[in-house]
Amino acid sequence: MLTLQKFIEKINSRTGFTGFLAYDEPMSRHTTFRAGGPADLFIRPEGEGFPAYAALLRESAGTEGIPLFILGGGANILVSDRGLRGVVLDTGGWRGAVAEASGLLVRSGTPVDEAVEAAAAAGLGGLEFLAGMPGTIGGAVWMNARCYDRSVSDVLKETEILDEAGARRWIPARPEDFGYKKSPFQGQRALIFSARFALTPRPEAEIRREMEEHRRDREAKGHYRYPSAGSVFKNNRAFGKPTGKLIDELGLRGLAIGGAMIAPWHGNIIINTGNARASEIRALTEETAARVKAALGFTLEPEILFAGDWGEGGSEE
Ligand SMILES: Cc1cc2nc3c(=O)[nH]c(=O)nc-3n(C[C@H](O)[C@H](O)[C@H](O)COP(=O)(O)OP(=O)(O)OC[C@H]3O[C@@H](n4cnc5c(N)ncnc54)[C@H](O)[C@@H]3O)c2cc1C
Question: How many helices (H) and strands (E) does the chain have?
């Protein structure tokens, strides 16, 4: 811990720091699963200095061999009970959306719903499909989030990143670089600063009507009833039906391990019924995949990301 303390003091003396900083910060406070152990050092820089601070932090962490995890809204990750070693950089302090003539410029830490609201207020259509989806714009771009038959890449024009060499640049969004829940940033360890969306004028009332439909639909599907990370597994055309349906048909709804349970109303959502440990959520994920494999021969691919220190045999992000 002393090493991290010295590390961050050195950085803060070079740039000045405003924001939130904590040692041993429980990740259960920062993930929608409400599970997961501590981050050694959790840091949320706030204000206009975010890009310069984040760049220095990432460069210094690289030089000193300190792991760095970039956190959006924590809506698609399961952090292990042992937590995350090194530094967690929370992008939540870098937010805001500005309407432009034919689109919206959004900072990565902006909650998705806030960006959708900003587009609506400016009478710009195109982001309605994301209404009610948890997480940040940075996470949605990184994941190429998808719902209601649309993906983020359908409206993404360009992305501003800090590339691996430490340069800040805009990358045009080329359709061939994106796929189902895939973005080019997944293989790069790029830090996303901003995204620009190509949107089209639409009457605000129409936009809001569509947004409300999506929000109501999510509500009706029980998305917000318990802590979760949305769909646990990806869909796959080869399965012939949605993954949730496969799991339903095997009668696995309600299956539980400790405090983790397959939602009684939706096969592809695992919920934290109260005090689930991350290990229980992960075990239930693996058990579900094993049962589907045994019964149907299909290999389910998790959509949620396992982050942190999973020890022997577990994966690390
Ligand atoms: C109730 C519920 C419903 C959901 N419904 C959907 C749905 O319909 N469709 C869908 O696709 N997903 C859905 N999700 C999952 C989740 O909302 C999305 O995947 C979302 O895009 C994740 O964003 P996040 O900011 O929370 O990312 P996080 O979970 O914080 O991070 C995900 C990954 O992105 C990386 N990352 C985040 N921000 C940045 C950045 N600025 N720069 C670089 N890397 C970054 C992280 O390092 C991590 O690897 C749902 C989740 C919940 C809880």
Answer: 7, 18
Distance between Cα 253 and ligand 1 center (Å): 24
Which residues, 6 or more positions from 217, have their beta carbon under 8 angstroms from its beta carbon?
none
Query: What confidence tens digit (pLDDT) does each residue in 108-167 have?
Result: 999 999 999 999 999 999 999 999 999 999 999 999 999 999 999 999 999 999 998 999
Does 224 map to a domain? no
Is residue 75 within 6 Å of ligand 1 at its C-beta? yes
- Same structural domain for residues 104 and 197? yes
Asked, for residue 213, whether it belongs to a domain, the answer is no
Is 13 in the active site? no
> What is the pTM assigned to this prediction?
0.96
Dihedral angle of Cα 136, 74, 64, 19, to the nearest 10 degrees: 60
Residues 229, 304 contacting (CB under 8 angstroms)? yes
Strand partners, 90: 71
Residue that terminates a domain, selected from 202, 229, 259? 202
**Which residues form the domain of 261?**
237-307
* Nearest partner of 195 among 79, 109, 255, judged by Cα: 109
Q: Domain containing 161 — which CATH number? A: 3.30.465.10
**Beta pairing partners, 289:** none
- 38 in contact with ligand 1, CB cutoff 6 A: no
Determine which one of 303, 312, 316, 317 is catalytic: 303
Q: Is the CB of 74 under 6 A from ligand 1?
A: yes
Is 80 considered catalytic here?
A: no
Measured from the Cβ of residue 86, the count of other Cβ atoms closer than 10 Å reads 19
Nearest by Cα to 257 from 240, 241, 276, 244:
276
Distance CA 269, CA 285 (A): 10
The CA distance from 52 to 317, in Å, is 25
